[in-house]
Amino acid sequence: MPVVLKKDIENAFASITVQELHEKHFDPNWHFHPHYQIFTVLNSNGTRFIGDDIAVFNTGDTVFLGPDLPHLWRNDKAYFEGTATSEAHGLVLYFTDDFLGKDFFEKPEMHLIKNLLEHSKRGISWSEKSNKLIIGYLKEILILNGFDRILKLLELLHLLSQDKNYTFITKEGYANSHKVSETERMQKVHDFVLKNFKTEIKLQEISETISMSEAAFCRYFKKRANKTFTDFVNEIRIGNACKMIGEQKYSISEICFESGFNTISNFNHQFKKIVHKTPSEYLKALKI
Predict the structure, then answer these.
(1) Would you list the DSSP string of 31-63?
(2) What's the pLDDT score for residue 186?
(3) Range of the domain at 39
(4) What is the pLDDT of residues 53-75, one digit of tens each?
(5) In this structure, are 151 and 251 located in the same domain?
């Protein structure tokens, strides 16, 4: 079955699409679409890929993504093996910038919301307090229809446009340079790394997997991911380490080797570089 990178969401009966997801795991395919998207995880965990960003996600994770921003919520291994204690549960809302007409957000009264939509092109996340507010609105929008649904979405966008406690997800200047024709190639890279990050990953091996020379693959990956392949692998490994630290069941040395690092010194160096804390400082912050 071919992987589809460009994902279209159409609703012939409404200008807003809202879906409640109850699945064994979220869509494992890295994709993008021409819609704005507000997505919240109501239950489950894993690793989140948005543009050039990699992060751990857990219940409550909520983001606002602009059009054509590539993304993927990859659940932890237990969800694919059927050993997770519950299904992956989420709420997602889609709309286009012209769902109320071509020039609606160009009106003077809409300038704050227009700024919000512009910021969403880098992906936006909020504080836990704001996330709870967003989740409440999404649950209301889910059960509303017609004009009431539109009004509630506009109210949510208005509130978010005034909330300054947000964080951009992708780096400044990030732009989607992917083509639909490259879907299968990039999907193979993601799948290979997620499957093998606990062991040594040789450049030759991943290059052969997608039928490219090592030099060509390095250039290709950096141009599209906005980071080197080595940085990509290290971010996934540190993401796994963060999850293990959060479980508070393992020693630092166990976490180091289970995350694919060969030495404690390199593990500590990469952890500090990516998380901006030492593993011990990260654990302490979690406890606080």
Answers:
(1) BB-SSEEEEEEEE--EEEEETTEEEEE-TT-EE
(2) 79
(3) 17-168
(4) 988 899 999 999 999 888 999 99
(5) no
